[in-house]
């Protein structure tokens, strides 16, 4: 397509479940830009012409163009028309590919959703109660909402086992505090969630790495190290693991659950990504319900700002110690946000929001694989990817160079336990896909990362 010619090839068909039509139009643009059907300088049709082509009213197209300009996809040139914008060059802007948050939901107007949700909460709640202290663990309605949300993972639950908490990090710290003593070891995989490492260090515990094979943590080594260190607590993130994206198969989960029962261990199953995996095995909590604390945060699959996570305590275990530890970090969950979460789960909004986020997350995974290629890229379906670096890169060096060029990523060193060093292992980076405001911005950032690696390689060949 010549620059300045009117582009129409990108126009697609609306879908019944694709959300508001103006957002679907923006989605058509983003997809076409990502696929390079639309390039900077391509002219878009006048709004009336596009409205006729799509069979919608002019207001819908005007709203779509306005939203696309807000996302820096388009630029207006007066009488000349509307054109695909060149990537914005902003030397002060850093594109954050380091923070694991869910992407903007496809086909959903989040502004409208928030306004309607808060309005419903205020309509059905006593404002005074929303602004005062609450008991930890959530109200009966909050616990019931948690049981509803977790039904896909764990089936029918006794709501009394469900605690509503202010985020998974505070829940994790409370579990460490209540289930271990200062100086004790916590067992985890060699690469693990940095929040575990931070909480353990702050609370005077230490993390010991249990080696893995192709299926995940090895049960035989779990037994050996649990006995050697007299460890009582094990941390696992078995589905779309952070950072490796590995999913532990069902057979290994059964072996780990059996070992927990044999040694009377307590497992923390941190499971924020289960809903992103179309074929995820049953959680460990299904196989060892009397030994597993199951933690599921909404920060990774809905919105971080909801500040809501659910903890399912083991069958038959009193919750007093966990609640007491939790209150020492966070006296209570924020009532307004917890009530909004409860409202959305009960009225089905949370399920709709999840579908929009999963649709966008899967589309971004596909874009990442197309842009970076499959070499050195782990297969996954969540909100981050795990990419092996060329042999001449150290992870810390690549991260530093990328940051200098306005791209934030995280290297494998940030996830490594002190006892989990593997000399000679290839360097990796975790690339988070959700923080970018649009697919357009994400693809540009991924191309810059790929070019950075290639440029370094060429420079070394010349030398």
TrEMBL record:
Cross-referenced CDD domains: AAT_like, WHTH_GntR
Keyword DNA-binding among UniProt keywords: yes
Keyword field: Aminotransferase, DNA-binding, Pyridoxal phosphate, Transcription, Transcription regulation, Transferase
Entry annotated with the keyword Transmembrane: no
Gene Ontology molecular function: any one: transaminase activity
Recorded superkingdom: Bacteria
Entry similarity comment: In the C-terminal section; belongs to the class-I pyridoxal-phosphate-dependent aminotransferase family.
Name under which the protein is recorded: PLP-dependent aminotransferase family protein
The organism of origin for this protein: Herbaspirillum robiniae
């Amino acid at each position: 397509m010549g620059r300045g010619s009117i582009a129409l090839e990108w126009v697609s068909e609306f879908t019944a479940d694709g959300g508001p039509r103006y957002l679907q139009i923006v989605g058509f643009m983003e997809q076409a830009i990502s696929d390079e059907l639309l390039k900077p300088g391509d002219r878009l049709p006048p709004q009336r012409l596009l409205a006729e082509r799509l069979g919608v009213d002019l207001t819908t197209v005007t709203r779509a163009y306005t939203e696309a300009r807000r996302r820096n996809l388009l630029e207006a040139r007066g009488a000349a028309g509307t054109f695909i914008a060149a990537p914005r060059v902003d030397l002060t802007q850093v594109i954050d590919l380091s923070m694991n948050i869910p992407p903007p939901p496809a086909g959903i107007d989040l502004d409208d959703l928030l306004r309607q949700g808060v309005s419903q909460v205020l309509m059905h709640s006593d404002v005074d109660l929303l602004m005062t202290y609450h008991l930890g663990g959530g109200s009966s309605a909050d616990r019931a909402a948690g049981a509803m949300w977790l039904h896909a993972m764990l089936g029918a639950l006794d709501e009394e086992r469900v605690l509503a908490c202010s985020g998974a990090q505070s829940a994790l710290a409370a579990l460490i505090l209540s289930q271990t003593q200062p100086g004790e070891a916590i067992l985890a995989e060699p690469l693990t969630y940095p929040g575990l490492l931070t909480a353990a260090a702050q609370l005077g515990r230490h993390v010991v790495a249990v080696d893995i094979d192709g299926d995940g943590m090895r049960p035989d080594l779990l037994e050996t190290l649990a006995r050697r260190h007299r460890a009582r607590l094990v941390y696992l993130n078995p589905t779309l693991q952070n950072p490796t994206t590995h999913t532990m198969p069902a057979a290994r989960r059964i072996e780990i659950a059996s070992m927990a029962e044999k040694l009377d261990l307590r497992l923390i199953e941190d499971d924020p990504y289960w809903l992103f995996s179309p074929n995820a095995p049953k959680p460990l909590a299904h196989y060892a319900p009397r030994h597993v604390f199951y933690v599921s945060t909404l920060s990774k699959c809905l919105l971080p700002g909801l500040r809501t996570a659910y903890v399912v305590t083991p069958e038959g275990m009193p919750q007093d110690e966990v609640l007491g530890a939790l209150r020492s970090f966070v006296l209570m969950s924020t009532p307004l946000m917890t009530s909004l979460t409860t409202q959305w789960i009960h009225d089905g909004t949370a399920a709709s929001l999840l579908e929009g986020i999963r649709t966008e997350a899967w589309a971004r995974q596909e874009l990442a694989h197309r842009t970076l290629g499959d070499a050195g890229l782990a297969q996954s379906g969540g909100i981050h990817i795990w990419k092996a670096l060329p042999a001449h890169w150290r992870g810390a060096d690549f991260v530093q160079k990328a940051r200098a060029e306005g791209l934030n990523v995280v290297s494998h060193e940030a996830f490594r336990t002190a006892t989990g060093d593997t000399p000679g292992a290839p360097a990796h980076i975790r690339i988070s896909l959700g923080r970018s405001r649009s697919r357009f911005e994400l693809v540009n950032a991924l191309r810059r990362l790929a070019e950075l690696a290639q440029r370094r390689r060429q420079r070394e060949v010349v030398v």
